[in-house]
Amino acid sequence: xxxxxxxxxxxWKVQHEKLHVRHxxxxxxxxxxxxxxxxxxxxxxxxxxxxxxxxxxSYNMVTLLQMWVVPLYFIIRLYWWRFLSTWGMFSVITSxxxxxxxxxxxxxxxxxxxxxxxxxxxxxxxxxxxxxxxxIMFTMFxxxxxxxxxxxxxxxxxxxxxxxGLYYGxxxxxFAEICxxxxxxxxxxxxxGGMPSRSLGDDICxxxxxxxxxxxxxxxxxxxTYQLSCNHIFHxxxxxxxxxxxxxxxxxxxxxxxxxxxxxxxxxxxxxxxYGQLLDWLRYLVAWQPIIIGVVHGINFTLGLE
Length: 306
What we know:
Blueprint: H1 2-23, H2 27-54, H3 56-78, H4 81-101, H5 110-140, H6 151-187, E1 225-227, E2 233-235, H7 236-245, H8 260-263, H9 267-287, H10 289-302
Antiparallel strand pairs: 1-2
Domain RING-type: 205-255
Keywords: Membrane, Metal-binding, Transmembrane, Transmembrane helix, Zinc, Zinc-finger
InterPro entries: RNF121/RNF175 (IPR040176), Znf_RING (IPR001841), Znf_RING/FYVE/PHD (IPR013083)
């Protein structure tokens, strides 16, 4: 039984030696390739930051489109059929939700439906991501041995779940933001100039335009009523959707800055803000990193570096 194990190790050593022989004397070429990689990464970072600052809307749209399409290339090339099924289901339902959110006139039920869908995606992606992270930690500390699970199996499950959680978390947030912008302008309570284009009643929620039945001081059965520092009141579900899911930090009615710390007194909810920052980093990784690496390969190929 020791023979195949030894032969496997020897094969690996032989391949390693061959690699060294093949690359001997190529140190200058390798240094050049590393410099090209670093230079491209720096230039790409500067270009992306400038683009984001000057034309934020077009940057977000292109990034979102790439986030949606780039994985499709890897799905087909690497036969990730399980990911394709979840990707297809998410795409179909989200397309319908966006279709409903961009209709004019807007149905009074649409805002709540939009936020319910994206809040569900957000919570599911958060839970799946946390479970994936715990599975990776579980493997790294060697707990898989107690359950007789192979390290590579539990690590695979952890990495896949973490990727699913982060990927759909990013997609959900970005699509929710697009829907938020469309609905805010369609509902008609806030305009690009910042002045409300319609007066708001004392018992009307400015996110969904529906009546509020629970007082601010009362505890609701399904949801509470929230009052922001500007004194405008909202359904809890609507304002949480607006601020956390839709990434808005202003009042939907008067455009005044919202104090998110007051809204998120629960420390567990503050982790959602950190999670949001992690998703922003992943967006760059999935959408732009493959393109930057492609550019680096193109430069290397043009200069005859291998």
